[in-house]
Amino acid sequence: xxxxxxxxxxxxxxxxxxxxxxxxxxxxxxxxxxxxxxxxxxxxxxxxxxxxxxxxxxxxxxxxxxxxxxxxxxxxxxxxxxxxxxxxxxxxxxxxxxxxxxxxxxxxxxxxxxxxxxxxxxxxxxxxxxxxxxxxxxxxxxxxxxxxxxxxxxxxxxxxxxxxxxxxxxxxxxxxxxxxxxxxxxxxxxxxxxxxxxxxxxxxxxxxxxxxxxxxxxxxxxxxxxxxxxxxxxxxxxxxxxxxxxxxxxxxxxxxxxxxxxxxxxxxxxxxxxxxxxxxxxxxxxxxxxxxxxxxxxxxxxxxxxxxxxxxxxxxxxxxxxxxxxxxxxxxxxxxxxxxxxxxxxxxxxxxxxx
Length: 355
Prior knowledge:
Blueprint: H1 5-9, H2 14-21, H3 26-32, E1 40-47, E2 50-56, E3 66-67, H4 71-85, H5 116-120, H6 139-142, H7 148-153, H8 180-194, H9 198-207, E4 232-233, H10 235-246, E5 250-251, E6 254-255, H11 259-266, E7 270-271, E8 279-280, E9 285-291, E10 294-303, E11 307-312, E12 317-323, H12 331-350
Antiparallel strand pairs: 1-2, 1-12, 3-4, 5-6, 7-8, 8-9, 9-10, 10-11, 11-12
């Protein structure tokens, strides 16, 4: 028996329906279900502000909240930008001026000079490196105590061994060191600058204008919304956040984030000295992807497990990949391979090979 195509479409899930509208991405969706990409839970592809394809590989579907871990950091950077646009916070604001009640265990006059921009670029002088298990500021040590902001402020000044590149000898005059504790402190700065709890400010000024209500924050032991990770959002909401960068901070006629803050966030502010050619903006990764003989630079919200919001200006696209490969060494490589090998070529072709 033959059925009208409209009747057949009624049996498709929303994600499958969108995939039907964009057969270009069938190969990506098929690949995402293989063992090579195990752990990937969703893919949402947007181009020119429209969702062109999406697919969900877990039981949650489009409405499920997904813990995308450190992608939260980019959200905290966006909230700092909104506060800056209000005139309540500035890039050169010294963080101690907004945290006057803390008395650091390791006082040092150089720490008094640390600014908001130092936290936004992961380049403060604190000895804090989540990639080094021996670091005094490694995030796993922070989770063991009650006061996470105090943890950051108590950290000693970082030293540079002879084989390490000092900030003054680095591109952009900064030395990168990935530090979750610093972003937690940035969340406290936004609270103190705005006089609102971080989650309330976020809902009023960021998620509300995006039409988003379905979110879930994690909190520190002292009740501060965790700006360094763990914010649960739907994949579609992650796509909306990414689109905000391509739209220069605007939602319709409303300027949600200052245009200059968006530009600074997407501009290299510090080089990541690991041989991969990665750079960093304002809590936003800048990463090269290869397409034939071309190198295209995307901006990424990244989170443990292979979670990514990939903002690609050359193709006018935002790609959301969520995954649960937490703690796995190849987690990011899996998601990046799916994007580079299967999604980016189709986005580039659909864009008309923009020159």
